[in-house]
Amino acid sequence: MDKKLRPDFLIVGMERSGTHWVAGLLNAHPEIAAFPFLPFHPEEGGNKIGEVHFFNTLASVEGKGEEVYARPITDWLIKYNKIFAGLVELKGRIPKEEFYAQALGRYSEYCDTQREEKKIVGEGSPAYIFHLDFIDTLYPGIKKICSIRDPKDKIVSWYFSKMIRKGDETIPHITEKFALEYLEERIVKEYEALLAYRGDVHCITYEELSKHTATITRGMVEYLGFEVSDEELSRMIEDASFKKQTLRDGKKERAPGEEDAKSGLRKGIVGDWENYIDEGFAKKIDAQVTSLQKMVFKKYNIKN
After folding, report:
1. In what order do the strands lie in the sheet with 9-11?
2. Are the C-beta atoms of 8 and 121 separated by less than 8 Å?
3. What sign has the CA pseudo-torsion 129, 131, 132, 138?
4. Residue 1 pLDDT exceeds 50
5. Is the peptide bond before 140 cis (omega within 30 degrees of 0)?
6. Would you list the domain boundaries of the chain?
7. In angstroms, what CA-CA distances link 292 with 67, 122, 192, 206, 214?
8. CA atoms within 13 A on the CB side of 148
9. Do 145 and 128 meet the contact criterion of CB atoms below 8 Å apart?
10. Does CATH place domain 1-149+201-239 in 3.40.50.300?
11. What is the pLDDT of residue 83?
């Protein structure tokens, strides 16, 4: 496959851990295109595709199920502006190798449209963290970036995304049941996926990105094979700032911490969990994930 017609890197997760911010920062580099860098709004014009969920949808052909967040291939008939719709009828009618070749061609061409005049392009979805080995069979050696966040803040962010932003009022506040289910069904599995993977992933934390934005951003740029001047770095950080992103997303500029509970870019801060989770329950959450987190941090040489 022509290298020009393929993504050059992927943002592979974790969920509710700043993947849109990572994409926004990288997309602000003069030679790097990254998408999506805004939350998905299917009801609005101009942002109709969002995450294309390519690899976790294609994984369903391999028999992967909901336990690894694989999506049915029939999604392609109605979602993502139907850019993959023509492939659905081919499943089972042509050899799998040929089907994959056509799917990869369509996906790579779409990525290339997002590249525009930049040298490299990357796409992302938090669900890709569960399909790292599968991705490598399709794009051997492709670079991957993963953002990791304090599980307690992830739980709060997921609550607002699932219950408040999407209008589900069946759980009026963050209960232990809600938190522990998300911890066990998603967060623990994310850490386990990183531990099981034998390849390379450039891992960062949301907390370090928030505290040392310039240093962490420069590290990501260098991982992708580029340099960045101090002037360019400052411009990238400004362009991907919470104020700029909220202005693009909702037509209203907000400062970090200024809440819009209905937005996918809700607050953009570290430690918001303290407003919703008491100290005793926080310790219970930490106890369930700390050992996994330490192993992941050691394996990927993550500073926190």
Report:
1. 32-35, 120-124, 9-11, 143-148, 202-205
2. yes
3. negative
4. no
5. no
6. 1-149+201-239, 150-199+271-304
7. 19, 28, 7, 17, 28
8. 25
9. no
10. yes
11. 92
What angle (nearest 5°) sits at the alpha carbon of residue 210, between those of residues 274 and 240?
Answer: 125
Which two tokens mark 121? 């392009």
Residues paired with 123 in a beta bridge: 10, 35
The number of beta carbons lying within 10 Å of the beta carbon of residue 234 is 12
Q: pLDDT digit string (tens) for 49-93?
A: 789 999 999 999 999 988 899 999 999 999 888 999 999 999 999
- Please give the Cα distance from 80 to 269 (Å, whole number): 30
Give the confidence band of 47 by pLDDT, cuts at 50, 70, 90: very low
Least confident range from 79-83, 100-104, 136-140, 282-286: namely: 79-83
Q: What is the pTM of this model?
A: 0.95
Q: Which one, of 195, 32, 211, 35, lies nearest residue 107 by Cα?
A: 35
